[in-house]
Amino acid sequence: MKDFLIPFDGPGGTGLHDDTDMGTPTSTSTRTVTLNIDGFEVTVPEGTSVMRASAELGIQVPKLCASDNMEAFGSCRLCVVEIEGRRGTPASCTTPVAEGMVVHTQTSKIKKLRKGVMELYISDHPLDCLTCGANGDCELQDMAGAVGLRDVRYTPGDNHYDPSGTGARSQAEARLRDPVGINNPQFLPKDDSNPYFTYDPSKCIVCSRCVRACDEVQGTFALTIEGRGFDSRVSAGMKLDDFMTSDCVSCGACVQACPTATLQEKSVIEIGTPDRSVVTTCAYCGVGCSFKAEMRGDELVRMTPYKHGKANRGHSCVKGRFAYGYAAHKDRILNPMIRDSIEEPWREVSWEEAIGFAATRMRGIQEQYGKKSIGVITSSRCTNEETYLVQKMARAVFGNNNTDTCARVCHSPTGYGLGQTYGTSAGTQDFDSVEDTDVVVVIGANPTDGHPVFASRLKKRLRAGAKLIVVDPRRIDLVKSPHIESAHHLALRPGTNVAVVTAMAHVIVTEGLYDEEFIRTRCDWEEFQDYVEFVAEERHAPEAVEMLTGVPAQELREAARLYATGGNGAIYYGLGVTEHSQGSTTVIGIANLAMLTGNIGRRGVGVNPLRGQNNVQGSCDMGSFPHELPGYRHVSGSEVREVFESLWNVKLDHEPGLRIPNMLDAAVDGTFKGLYCQGEDILQSDPDTKHVAAGLAAMECVIVQDLFLNETANYAHVFLPGSTFLEKDGTFTNAERRINRVRRVMAPKNGYADWEVTQLLANAMGGGWTYTHPAQIMAEVAATTPSFANVSYELLEEKGSVQWPCNDASPEGTPLMHIDGFVRGRGRFIRTEYVATDEKTGPRFPLLLTTGRILSQYNVGAQTRRTENSRWHEEDVLEIHPHDAEVRGVRDGDYVRLASRSGDTSLRALITDRVSPGVVYTTFHHPTTQANVITTDFSDWATNCPEYKVTAVQVSPSNGPSEWQQDYEAQAEQSRRILPAAE
């Protein structure tokens, strides 16, 4: 078994580089070797293959089975070379260089051998090149030309592509004669089951690149080579499995690896091969993968992961790779719309009329109710530059600090907890750091579904021997899947994160496993003494909290010992940590664990929040919170305000504004009347749906800027069509603080990028802005925000990406934080007292509901539901344990009523032991389910982050959608009526 290797990143490891496949991975050796290839000397690291050394000289040795993101395989025999002093013709991909070696890549003997090998490949391959979807993009075709093959001498006989058995060269003709392959048992029909790519066995050359990519790059092990010799072929599982029913996760690694048309994107077959490409950044999760958007004219043909992307290193998932069709979906709104009240249908109008209508309404509200009666919600799907402008509009144009973002409902406790303990509100490591970790703690996160590209890198490290501790009430895939298994699964009861984390600290402290030297050197010793006194109390012992948490005491003790003594320890956490009434406390507890054990400030360790949306980190960095200006500086600081007041030529409010929950409360109370909501769907994503609806309905002007008429738009008066990531320039900041360029691939279908729409509205309200390109906005960010001081588009073009802080102290960015000291000075230990949530189970609501995501869908599903990804997840289902289902008379696939103190909904049941007895689980991707009608308004004590993960519920049989669902659907349908544009 071999593992994924990080491909070479060019000289110095920076910038946008040639995407040439070098054949084999780079060597990490620091020693060098000099050799001669075809008369030219080259010096390369020891351990480099002859093939790669040749490629460094620009000499491309023909190959079919080799690729530089996988270990050398040596099966195709096309890359043979001659080496002076050695017998035979070794494969250049599996032959390491040696000092003084003399290599010949193009002798008469070599040419004859290669041509013979290629002739054998072609003799069992359909020669339908002119009509093949891979024509012009086929390595087999290229290599036939490279070796000079012009004819095939062999008489057609047994083959894999001729179902007629007559030796016909036309695959179409052969299938017409014998479509089911009766006369040729070797023939297999094309597998079109996957919505995004096809598998045509007749074109397979059994190079094993797809199988190796699935194993080494993705780590799913869904593919294998079935049979031997002439009977060998790629298989996607059991005998009756196809690509849709197999374990394939449609990441596209196999498609990208395939050198022929055996595995090919359907989009290429339909549109044709691309003729240009633009490197940009994925607009889904917080991993921030780099892609080549490959175009034909102004039509997107495919998204190919960019091998020099430092977050993804040439890998992808099903969403980033294939789920881009929403950009051209028929549901997309491309014209501005307005209406006087939410009971009326929408009217399509010009941009000028829509902006004027919105500006007049918002100014009228302020004149009547005061300047603090309106506010904004920024988007974690939009660019840094766009988010910066929205919060600037609130502060400099509206004249208040009523700005908030979706991080309020996901990672705001990260900002508070890490800010209090370390002094900065972000993760400490880059993703490459996982390659050096020895013990990984995954708590409240499901990387294989939520952050699959990072999960692939994590699984690679686990296969190499690192140990894993999973802290989650649900048995996620990382607990046990092919070739990996967690050392410990702490299946805690929802809502008891603080108790578990504090109990782990208790074990580390009472057993003397903490790193005293690190603590004395790097942390506040007096605060540590106070923390030790607190955490050593017997009430925090694993045995004392076992009944509360449901985690066996011995299992917890062993997990704590492993983390403290197992070498480099890294903690990765997600929304299962933050979306609790004690989310901030848990983040503080995690930070305490890392400081206790000295697992901070070097590679392979750290505290790493896995951000949910593509730019949730950036939206926070840009000052989207009501109490902070860009760079996490409090609005009460006069020196900070002066920086912006001088540049913006306005006087800024020194009082924090309203958070999203406060805006909704104030709306119900009649004091908050206008909202500009860019790229967020709070009606579907925020808790207690009925309260959100009441707040929106009470407002006099709701402006929604988005791609589709989302659920929030049901209560909107102005709809401003948004632009996709393909239609704009800008930057995203991912979970590792990496600032990546977003590059415009095509013109905005609505006429404007989102930043231009915000500028239109701001200027209609007196803003006087004059930006002509997002680079100017980033320049303003750099001029006002210390952690972005050296960031510019020129630097990003040169380096490819950088991680903040990027300033004079770190001119090329900061991959690892807190190396020599914490941002705040000394690390701060803080007591983590467990306080039970007010949400309690009881006779009426005896079960606990927790929520999460699934691989194929993203967030509220507005994008992925409008792609073929819905083939994998067409509705939200409720996972319930067999015991709980049997007690309630629920069968698999039945409709059930899911009820809480807040509301009820109906959805189908999925009986599974992935959840524990007493716990049920669902996703929130489909508005027809509207899971958040169930969740309560309880929230984190420090940040108001909602407690999505702990809701007391009851489950009972149902006949179908609830009355609330039916009413909601009727209201939504009524709200989405659109009148034709006025003549």
From TrEMBL:
CC per GO annotation: membrane; oxidoreductase complex
Superkingdom of the organism of origin: Bacteria
Protein family according to the UniProt entry: In the C-terminal section; belongs to the prokaryotic molybdopterin-containing oxidoreductase family.
Protein name as catalogued: Formate dehydrogenase subunit alpha
Molecular function per GO: 2 iron, 2 sulfur cluster binding; 4 iron, 4 sulfur cluster binding; formate dehydrogenase (NAD+) activity; metal ion binding; molybdopterin cofactor binding; NADH dehydrogenase activity
Underlying gene: fdhF
GO BP field: formate metabolic process; respiratory electron transport chain
Keywords from the UniProt entry: 2Fe-2S, 4Fe-4S, Iron, Iron-sulfur, Metal-binding, Oxidoreductase, Repeat
Domain 4Fe-4S Mo/W bis-MGD-type: 275-331
Listed Polar residues bias regions: 956-965
Entry keyword annotation includes Metal-binding: yes
InterPro entries membership: 2Fe-2S_ferredoxin-like_sf, 2Fe-2S_ferredoxin-type, 4Fe4S_Fe-S-bd, 4Fe4S_Fe_S_CS, Asp_de-COase-like_dom_sf, Formate_Dh-H_N, Formate_DH_asu, MoPterin_dinucl-bd_dom
Cited NCBIfam families: Fdh-alpha
PROSITE patterns the UniProt entry points to: 2FE2S_FER_2, 4FE4S_FER_1, 4FE4S_FER_2, 4FE4S_HC3, 4FE4S_MOW_BIS_MGD
Keyword Aminoacyl-tRNA synthetase found: no
Domain 2Fe-2S ferredoxin-type: 31-109
Spans annotated as Disordered: 9-29, 956-983
SUPFAM superfamilies: 2Fe-2S ferredoxin-like, 4Fe-4S ferredoxins, ADC-like, Formate dehydrogenase/DMSO reductase, domains 1-3
EC number of the protein: 1.17.1.9
